[in-house]
Amino acid sequence: MFQLGGLVVTLVNALLGLIVWRRLRAAFPRHGGLINGLCAAGLLLLTHPAVLMAVASWSGLRALQRHLPEPVSLIALGAQVALLLYGLLLGIAAIVRVAFGALRRGRPAPSARAVTLAEADTNARSIAGAQADSAAQPASAPAARVANAPEDVKTEPELVDEPRRRLLVGATWALPAAAVAVSMGGVLASRQRPVVVRVALPVRRELTSLHGVTLAQLSDVHVGSFMDAERLDELRDAMNALRADIHVITGDLLDHHVSQLELSTRLLRGLRPARGQLFFCMGNHEYIAARSASIPTIVKGLEEAGAQVLVDEAREVRLGGDRLWMSAIDYPSRARPGEPARRPTADGLARALGQMRDDGAPRVLLSHHPGTFRAARELPFDLMLSGHTHGGQISLGRIGDYALTPMLPAGLYHNGLYVHRGRRLHVNAGAGGWLPVRINCPPEITLVELVPA
């Protein structure tokens, strides 16, 4: 699948490179050789991630990440996003142009009756004057006009083409410049300190020991995918600075290999929840990393670092004289050959729910995949915390429940808070990502506060 994706992106890159080349050649006709070389070199240097993925699938990108200095990788992947963004802008401009042309063609032609008597009189006088001037001219005048015709032909188009040429030059640079600026800004944004998104969870007024209790959520760190020890220390410090009572991690702490367990457990050991409890649910990348070892190895390492890894189960958390139920379900996918069988999502939800008493205490559910909310929202859970989508990494806003991100065709719940008949879901935008680019979608830590209803 990744190899096919790399091939498609490579073909798109080639098409966009051809468009850029043609526009530059038209705008700067005197520098054709230089433009040819710059376009060819730029395309090879800036889009090699897609070429590597087309040739060697996912391992091609991993090789790029391992062997190239991080700044070079960041610039290359940012440039790849810039080129695709440029293609998107070209597509939008083409659609607008076609729509505008269709509207113009749809307008009715002016009727002959619309010509007023005054306009007709003016036209008649102009024609008569022109005829009189023609009669007064000597016979040599037509020959003179013919002789001057080549000069006229040379000068008239110059007046028309010069503004168009300047517009073409401006358009040639404006769209690519905008795409590069936005994408490189997205690279810088992906490295910024995570923002804190606050979510309120109403609880019964009589549960006074729970009022003001806070939970800090971290998700989709992807240790090893442009997430080194220094960056992990920043995340650790940002989590601890919130002084939350409980910490939760909703999956994809590791990225793809068991070797990343060392840095992952280092992060876990550095977290300092005020009440001393750290809960963890499995993400799809924990299972990907387990292919290089085993699932028990991954789970054991996480638990030895202080995490309570919940798989289709629930735990009671005593807070003063009251309690809070923490639960989590497994990542919803089929087990690979040799892996333990996984429960269907409905069975996992039922099992976790069955371990919680119906005592009015708030129930928090951790699920890496937000799509689980479709089933959980009909069950007596108060809040579901998820990740997985990274907020789309590129966000153009949200209309109702529809977040305008690249993930929109893949599902409904992408980023932020969703409410269905009193059941709440918050989708964390993640701290890491597939690509080191975030546009209007910064890294996130979620802080949930229990407040009296």
Describe the largest sheet: 6 strands, mixed
Helix and strand pattern: HHHHHHEEHEHEHHEEEHEHEEEEEE
Point out poorly predicted stretches: 114-118, 138-147
Helicity level, as a percent range? Answer: 40-55%
How many runs of DSSP E, i.e. beta strands?
14
Distance between the termini: 48 Å
Shape: elongated
Keywords:
six-stranded mixed β-sheet; 453 residues; alpha/beta; 15% strand; 49% helix
Would you kindly provide a written description of the structure presented here, covering whatever features stand out?
The protein has helices spanning 2-27, 32-46, 48-67, 70-106, 117-136, 140-190, 229-241, 261-270, 284-290, 295-304, 345-354, 373-376, and strands at 195-203, 214-218, 246-249, 277-280, 308-309, 313-319, 322-328, 363-366, 383-386, 398-399, 402-403, 416-420, 423-427, 444-452. With 453 residues, it is an alpha/beta fold. The two termini are 48 Å apart. The relative contact order is 0.11. Mean pLDDT is 84; it is low at 114-118 and 138-147.
Secondary structure: elements and pairs:
Elements: H1 2-27, H2 32-46, H3 48-67, H4 70-106, H5 117-136, H6 140-190, E1 195-203, E2 214-218, H7 229-241, E3 246-249, H8 261-270, E4 277-280, H9 284-290, H10 295-304, E5 308-309, E6 313-319, E7 322-328, H11 345-354, E8 363-366, H12 373-376, E9 383-386, E10 398-399, E11 402-403, E12 416-420, E13 423-427, E14 444-452
Parallel strand pairs: 1-14, 2-3, 3-4, 4-5, 7-8, 8-9, 9-13
Antiparallel strand pairs: 2-14, 6-7, 10-11, 12-13
